[in-house]
């Protein structure tokens, strides 16, 4: 049985293509081979930027003796959790049930049909710290499979029932707290409850939420922004303060790469002083959007600088030929002839001596003091506070020199896998930032990436979206999840808002329709009065996952990316507003879940769904343009300004495929005519940009 990882779209899988292990991808052929040989499957799950995945690979999977033993007694299957989050989620649940912990690399032993019976994470090459060696684990499982097969089968059945039970318990608990999605002004306000919990969970000393490890709260930032932008009052003021404190704390911390821009995955410490050095596309895309929006709403706080540096990082280090974006940068740097700048995080840290060597003794000492570098230690650079004007000038002069010197170090590896949904996040962020930061290059990058995703990932004949691609070739065997369809549709809507080009609107509609077709079916308990849909995160659930207790049912909870169901709900709300299509709106309640319960218990895990709810209870706004010249319409769009991407649609009624909100908005005699509409009601038309500005000001 040969190693089948060569040519895979996943860099993580390709990293293991030369192992002396007959690795198989997670597919029907691998499990059929296990059935044929009647041996267990050894499932190894990780990702390209995972430090301990690299360690275990070097210690064990590159060992020919270990490889030979694996091949003889198991069917070894390798999974990239970023490519197959469906696989990762089911077997992570099993691992946590079996071991009371989880993490990556994840090592799971399965029956030939896919049920888990033993699991762990990293195993060392030799016994250490109370842990058995990996070889000892393999031998113990082999012996048990040969002599105690019945016990293992019983254990596998119990784990599968528990995995299925966990998912069912969650659905039952959520359903027990469900409330109908209220119309404007009706029922309880989940966002108020969510804000109260978030204020209680804030770290009052260091900012952000919770203790160590501390992650950027990317998926809840849009909720805070939405509440802050709402009607004046205590809630808006509290949300504005919480959002500003959170963004401010991250901006000056070691979580942000002060030299090269972009954010690391998380902070090991509560005070944001020591990052885990992976750089992920999904984090940087969501944070770019948050900082660009913050800069537009409250300029002068430093958010614009952070947004611009993050966008520059994306374009410089993650952008691929063709315009799409790579998944991540590794935490580790390769060793080059014993270079001290190799290993985890080594690319990014500095000693005082190194700063002095680049900047000269006096400036080097000043920058070391400013950026918190202690004597005798290599550390990430961060001020931990807002710089004054003189300090900022010192840093602005030093940063390019340090960036040039750092570029000579061995750079972390890049995972060039293109993930559709994560690219959707990046496209949305760049499209909005291009308008908000007045940088046309960012908008152009967003358009190029979107064009690439549509050309490479979308199969129009089959109406299928591939989740991943590599080097311009889609991995057609892995269909996108609900989140991929939803996040890419959202990206196309962002481009429509930013450019007015109706081609993006048409593509968003296509993906929304395909998502409904692929990921939902009628709810048999809905009845005629309350028709609804049951949604799944997967279009088709693989047989091994079903055997292991998985169901594929959609969850309303965010992870590192917003919940696919919640994003699709946001897409449908926007399409409803644009096209005035009530059929879109009727699907939204079935996607959002029990908002009141989630708001009261876990708002950080339901930020996107709660944001959609907040959008439902406010009126959509449109500026519809008809007649006149292209220059007239361009000037009108400029007059709308940042609002064009922050919530007010600018619609060209004369464009082919204009949305339904433009119906009946005509230009008598071809004269330039502008309609300002709120609550699906338009004011009397005006005919000049100056009058448009007056209308917009009157509505603020």
Report on this model:
With 700 residues, the chain is an alpha+beta fold. It has 27 helices and 22 strands. Strands 2-1-3-4 form a 4-stranded mixed beta sheet, sandwiched between helices. It has a 4-stranded mixed beta sheet with strand order 20-19-21-22. Helix 9 (221-228) runs parallel beside helix 24 and helix 11 (281-297) runs parallel beside helix 16.
Question: How much strand content do the residues show?
Answer: 5-15%
The end-to-end distance, rounded to whole angstroms, is 68 Å
What oligomeric state best describes the polypeptide chains here? single chain
What level of helicity do the residues show?
40-55%
Q: List the uncertain runs.
A: 176-185
What is the 3D shape? globular
Q: What's the story with the biggest beta sheet?
A: 4 strands, mixed
- What's the alpha carbon Rg, rounded to whole Å? 26 Å
Number of helices: 27
